[in-house]
TrEMBL record:
Residues 346-372 are annotated as: Disordered. InterPro entries: ABC_transp_permease, ABC_transptr_urea_perm_UrtC, LivM-like. This is Branched-chain amino acid ABC transporter permease. GO terms for molecular function: branched-chain amino acid transmembrane transporter activity. GO terms for cellular component: plasma membrane. The chain crosses the membrane at residues 37-56, 63-82, 115-137, 144-163, 192-212, 242-259, 265-284, 291-309, 321-342. The keyword Cell membrane applies. NCBIfam families: urea_trans_UrtC. It comes from Rhodococcus opacus. It is found in: Cell membrane. It holds the Pfam family BPD_transp_2. Its main location: membrane.
Length: 372
């Protein structure tokens, strides 16, 4: 096999092309507003990569990724609000002063430290997923029951946030001025945030590719298809599922933390049932069992929502639902699966034997006699 056609070098070429598009082409052709909008879409793509691993490869219909997305987002937002209050010389953020809160709540205090905030974003969503997954998978909860449970978790988390005045209630947290000392109103710093999101997305895709192509990736697919057979071979399917579920939660927490300074707001509406299902729709449309399908699907659906909602604000929800029904009903492997199917058909047609020529019109037995 030549170097240019080997899978390894094709993957490196793909990463190089993606880096070129994100770091050179996008900043050159997009305005500051559109670049920030693309950064928002990249955050959704990071979540989608984790869903593709857990759902596409592991068969776990994760309808509650908004929880882990929200955990990362709110931890980042809390730190940014505290930092803004310190710049003004206040002890509590501005919305707390309006609500009559004069002291910083106890669970806000750790997020005064940037290091603790970063560690919390990296660890807490994964730890929550580990505890939940351990309890669910060890009891062999799967299929529709797991999907309903994860969706109920997202709904409960959103309701909890709405009732908390110390996290902004239904309005959430917004109006951030700085990001670890950098002014968020500076276009150069906004571009820096886009570059960070692009780098995280590339790293997440690389990690997921390594998992998919490893021995673990084979076991994850085997658990999805024949869980009892994997258990009979001596492996614990619960542990295999748990790794994928925790990894997906870790990716979602990172995406939420990046979403806050890029978009400038986080509220319960961004972490409940509706956004969790929206994450899933992008993955399903792109192709849940592929590596790049979830990324392209999430970015494409988010772009379509932004573009069509500007012209048809009330019609996008119906169009999104119709698109999801069409894909699930007629193209269950998504757009990426459709392209793969067309590629296999083209290859099969090219491999068909040519029709017999005039010299091949003799019967096989006659040719054997002639050979003798």
């Amino acid at each position: 096999m030549s170097i240019l056609t080997s899978g390894r070098y094709r993957a490196w070429a793909g990463f190089a092309l993606a880096a070129l598009l994100l770091y050179v082409v996008a900043p050159a052709v997009l305005s500051d507003f559109r670049l920030s909008l693309l950064g928002k879409f990249l955050c959704f793509a990071i979540v989608a990569v984790g869903i593709g691993l857990a759902w596409g490869r592991g068969g776990m219909l994760t309808l509650g990724q908004g929880v882990f997305f929200g955990l990362g987002a709110y931890m980042m937002a809390m730190h940014l609000k505290i930092a803004d209050a310190e710049l003004r010389g206040d002890t509590v953020p501005d919305f707390m002063q309006i609500a009559g809160i004069r002291e910083l709540p106890g669970y806000w205090v750790p997020f005064t430290s940037p290091i603790v905030t970063i560690l919390g974003i990296l660890l807490i969503p994964a730890l929550v997923a580990f505890v939940l997954g351990l309890g669910v998978f060890k009891r062999r909860v799967k299929g529709a029951y797991f999907a309903i449970l994860s969706q109920a978790l997202a709904a409960a988390f959103a309701i909890l946030l709405v009732g908390q005045q110390s996290t902004g209630g239904s309005n959430g947290l917004n109006r951030f001025r700085t990001f670890f000392g950098f002014n968020l109103n500076d276009p150069a710093n906004k571009q820096m945030l886009f570059f960070i999101a692009a780098g995280v997305l590339l790293a997440v895709v690389a990690i997921t590719r390594q998992l998919m192509n490893s021995r673990y990736g084979e076991l994850l697919v085997a658990v999805r298809d024949q869980e009892e057979r994997v258990r009979f071979l001596g492996y614990d399917p619960a542990n295999i599922k748990l790794v994928a579920y925790v990894t997906a939660a870790f990716f979602a927490g990172l995406a939420g933390a990046l979403f806050v300074p890029i978009v400038g707001i986080i509220s319960p509406a961004d972490v409940g049932i509706v956004p969790s299902i929206a994450f899933l729709i992008g993955v399903a449309i792109g192709g849940r069992s592929t590596l790049l399908g979830p990324v392209l699907g999430a970015i494409g659906v988010a772009w379509a929502q932004s573009a069509f909602s500007e012209s048809f604000p009330s019609g996008w929800t119906y169009a999104q639902g119709l698109l999801f029904i069409v894909v699930v009903g007629f193209f269950p492997a998504g757009v990426a699966g459709l392209f793969a199917l067309l590629k296999r058909k083209k290859k099969a047609s090219s491999d068909e034997p040519a029709p017999p020529g005039p010299e091949d019109e003799t019967e096989p037995t006659e040719r054997m006699e002639m050979a003798r």
